[in-house]
Amino acid sequence: MQITIAAVGRLKAGPERELFDRYIERAGQTGRALGxxxxxxxxxxxxxxxxxxxxxxxxxxxxxxxxDGARLLALDERGETMTSDAFAGWLGRERxxxxxxxxxxxxxxxxxxxxxRSRADRLLAFGAMTWPHQLVRILLAEQVxxxxxxxxxxxxxxx
Length: 159
Ligand SMILES: C[S@@+](CC[C@H](N)C(=O)[O-])C[C@H]1O[C@@H](n2cnc3c(N)ncnc32)[C@H](O)[C@@H]1O
Known about the structure:
The protein is an alpha/beta fold.
């Protein structure tokens, strides 16, 4: 199963990028034996004047990355919270059920547009506070890596 992190905005070279890349690389290594591959798709931020236009344009671009039938989980501070075990369990069940792709979508500075929220199968919050999208990327990459260790029984995760 393909896990795609789809993110509005581009992460420049630097410590945040290095940390993100490190978790993605680890997730890819641990995921291989589990039938999971992980990749990043980055989208440029909209330059529209109005926030609602920016959100609509970014939502349309994000949704172009979501194939028909794929699951879409949108990262959103208004979403549900989930334990790492529950997140790993969901990924494992989707894989076992024959799902081909899960897209994990991170919004831009204005957040997700309505089209993403209504298409999303789940909205996931890393708490009720607003985090910068760069940090959300790192948190998400770490949770994907952690999920692969949970599914493979690797001792990285200690609940
Ligand atoms: C700077 S935030 C956007 C905040 C925007 N005001 C909103 O209402 O969503 C950029 C992106 O980071 C992600 N994000 C920020 N805080 C989050 C949280 N607590 N949980 C999950 N995702 C979060 C979301 O994907 C969001 O679209």
